[in-house]
Protein: ABC transporter substrate-binding protein
Organism: Azospirillum oryzae
Amino acid sequence: MLAAAALLTTTALTGIGFGASPAHAEDEIRIGVIYPLTGAAASTGVELKAAAELAAAIVNKEIPAPPGLVAGIGLPHLNGAKIKLIFGDHQGNPQVGATEAERLITSEKVVALTGAYFSNVTATASQVAERYGVPFLNGESSSASLTQRKFKWFFRTTPHDDLFVGNFFTFLGDMEKKTGDKLRSVALFNENTLWGNETTKLQVKLAEEQKFTIAEKILYPAKTTQMTSEVQRIKAAAPAVIMQSSYLGDAILSMKTYKELGFSPKMLLANDAGFNDSEFLKTMGKDGEFVISREVWALDQAERNPLIKQVNDLMHQRTGVNFNGNSARAFTGIAVLADALDRAGSTKPDAIREALQKTDIPASGLIMPWKGVKFDANGQNELGQGIIVQVQGGQYVTVWPFDVATKPVVYPMPAWDGR
């Protein structure tokens, strides 16, 4: 995947610049997109890039759009202009992300930015956008603090970790009622960047409020190469549930270490990210079964929203892989930004920002199982929702909320020697 990521460089094309007047026919509207295209998370970045490019192709009417999809309207109020995605590679490094944001704004003359998947990179890149007065639409980063900074130019479509972590504890309570089993003993196992640290604080707070016991709490170094001592500590604490926040490499390493040490809790609750990356199941195969994760998207929800399957089919035709929660959010971010550009009828920053503030997209126009997209005063989408999925038979299936579940939860997670 690193080789593939290396091919993802873009050539700067002449287009309208930052602060330009309304677009003329056939103009290119340049949008900066910052993802990890090389480094440990390159495979994730490749999928995010492909999803963004699919959204752009639909907006530009290069491929037919399923009826009702918000991106399918194109840019009629910009006289047939096309969006051009200009990519930046942050390599998983917050400082590189900030540098790429500045390059895209000052050299590539983009009218808006999107990205950056890693919450700590989104934090630095959006600070640059804020300084320059350029709209930044974030589709994938979930650290709650990102929309608590009182920024003027930052908007986020995905729900954040306050909601996701709250869903974890609600789900555990519902499982206790359903099974009659006690799931009050929890281990926290999170990477130590902005995302993992903030998640841990939320988990500690809610565990205390809802009378769960934290049997062990470990913040491990991001991009670690071994987890033996950490997993031994968790195994000794014997929690009923692990709540884990890991990017791809760490998620795979932890599962391999769990198996090596023969550790299998009743439930592993993953905080999306690496556990839902397409490479996770490609690498783990059957050893990735029964992981439970929070999510914002699942293919099996197409029974309730036909757009999910229709757009996923387009993604699969182009890339050979299905959407996952990460890439579906990247697609949605570009679609929402394009909707705002069209309503703005201009590439001026103030006009785009005003259009984003007035966004009101119904659920019927999205591929996400949300109530829609509408931003509050802090730029946070008020209408996003979370679901919980479990790996069953090599697929991520919805298991909670129970009223939208397509499969029952497999519980407890089978021991390694009983699979």
